[in-house]
Fold this protein.
Amino acid sequence: MFLSLIKFLRGFLLVRLNGYSPERFLNLCSNHNILIWNLTNHGDSYEFYISIAGYRKLKPLLRKTKTRVVILQRIGFPFFLYRYRKRKVFFAGIVFGLGFLLYLTTFVWLIDINGNSLITDETVLAFLEEESASFGSRKSRIDCSALEESLRTKFDDIIWASVRLSGTKMTIDLQENLITKDTSEEAQEKPEGAYNITADKDAVITSIITRQGTPLVKAGIEVKQGDILVGSQLDIYNDSNEIVNHVYVAADADIYGRTQYTYEEAFPMRYNRKVRSGEGKSAYSLSLFSYQVNLPTFFQQKEPYISYTESRQLALAKDYYIPVTFEKTTYYPCKYEQVTLSKPQAKERAKENLAVYLKKLEEKGVQITDNSVMIEFADNQCQVKAVITAIEKIGKYEPAEVKQISTDERLTEDESD
Amino acid sequence: MGKMNFGKWKEGLVESLELPKDLMYGAVLVSITGRQEILIENYRGILEYTQNHISLQTKACRLVVRGKDLHISYYTNEEMKITGRIDSVLYED
């Protein structure tokens, strides 16, 4: 197969041999390493195939053996080119086709975004569109490092970005800030000037470590939202224990408090669900840029059905994607099935949902110490109530009220702190 | 007489050392597949070729293949492949 392809590309001839001593000619051919194949005898003449290069070497052998050859047929790519040499448009078409293909490879046809979990692909793609670096934009116009830079500045959550172009594929690797809340708090931290720390939610203080400022609460004290936890005001006493002056600082402390979350959920015990029944049928479609061509299908899918669509972008070679997408949609007939959850099943589901909620809380940096769950069944409904006790960092910065005290007044404060 | 002795001696050597005989004697190798294909290696040249009859020269003897519609698929300096309907393979001195 492969050999015959090479033979075809290099071109070969079908030749008829006549003459005085053909056997001698054949022996000379093999001695001169001229390959001959499919040799057949037709009475006093022979026919065989010979490569173009071999044919060019025949002349002295023919003279020596007093034989003559006649070309019967020319086969192969070189003769094909020669035969159609006058069809200029045809060759122009081949050249144009190849050129067009090369031209298309100077654009981006596939964008691969990795590492994003909070930011959706769509958001990134929309951003790329704004930056005019989306599908179908010139590769030469895309500045990868500038794009990385702007990705980082546009999205605060992206702490690292890498943009690579290989072939017609643009690969964007992102690293997101997974502990968003904590770091945003930290970023918000260290304000300059006079700031108090106030409670951002009701809690019972479990620990407080003050680095700067006057602590106004102790561990075990219950605070309401808005209460000042660490004051910005520092009192300066003189030797006779009188306040001489106030200094205002930005309060800084680690305050942990016990907080409570309530979780409520209700879901029906009986509901309808789509269930696949029977074999699926597939429909195919092809989309080129934004045009979609549906290949004819020979069936009509009745409602209700479940459909799955697989789409696949065609590539010339690895990473050389072209703007042609092949889609396969499989329709499965289905029927509605009523599902009735038994009480243990419902409990199981309630627990799963709660676990998801707890996990989300923990991701926010909340430490869960206790949760009490109540599951009730009423009116075909499963009602879940949970009270979750957690320990978390509380406190936010608020500008403090600055009171200037004239040194003359020398207000004496109470003895208590 | 001396040559005969040498031939015997060589034969004994080749036998005892288990050397490949096609190399040592320049012997012809013939492999036949069914009735329709025959591959001949180590031949010297073509003596005669017609549709029913191919005669080849080898180092020690002549090899004649008889059959119908014989044709040579390819041949090089070392080997030749003949296809067709083979009736007989004959060694001639």
Remarks:
- Chain A has a mean pLDDT of 82.
